[in-house]
Automatic annotation (TrEMBL):
Higher taxonomy: Eukaryota, Viridiplantae, Streptophyta, Embryophyta, Tracheophyta
Organism this protein belongs to: Cardamine amara subsp. amara
Pfam families: Prolamin_like
Prolamin-like domain mapped to chain residues: 36-107
Domain of life, source organism: Eukaryota
Name of protein: Prolamin-like domain-containing protein
InterPro entries: Prolamin-like
Key words of the record: Signal
Signal peptide: 1-24
């Protein structure tokens, strides 16, 4: 099971790094955020969050709790970096709205428990 979790972590990190703009002006800031934020959330939840914002995925209540624990700054910044990717920038406004909607949903879930 631990081996699977480590493999999932590598998949998440690879996916996230693939979406980070290569020539980003704030590259050091982005690296610091990855190192700070990604340790606060499970790889499965990170994939679920990405699938909700950039696709039609769903998120569990437990992942919502992880997301809220991660913090709004981490969530906003990580999704912004991914949505700034040249291949995604056309739909950036849509992704940022989905990001905000997901945050509001997860905050409401976290308050009920």
């Amino acid at each position: 099971m631990a081996k699977l979790s480590i493999q999932m972590l590598f998949v998440v990190v690879a996916l996230v790094c693939a979406f980070v703009p290569v020539l980003s002006v704030e590259e050091a800031e982005a690296k610091a955020l990855w190192n700070t934020c990604l340790v606060k959330i499970t790889p499965k939840c990170a994939l679920d969050i990405i699938s909700v914002v950039f696709g039609n995925g769903t998120i569990s209540d437990s992942c919502c709790h992880d997301l809220v624990q991660e913090g709004k700054l981490c969530h906003d910044t990580l999704i912004k970096y991914i949505s700034d990717r040249p291949s995604l920038i056309v739909k950036e406004a849509q992704f940022l709205k989905k990001r905000d909607d997901l945050w509001a949903h997860c905050v409401s879930i976290s308050k009920t428990v």
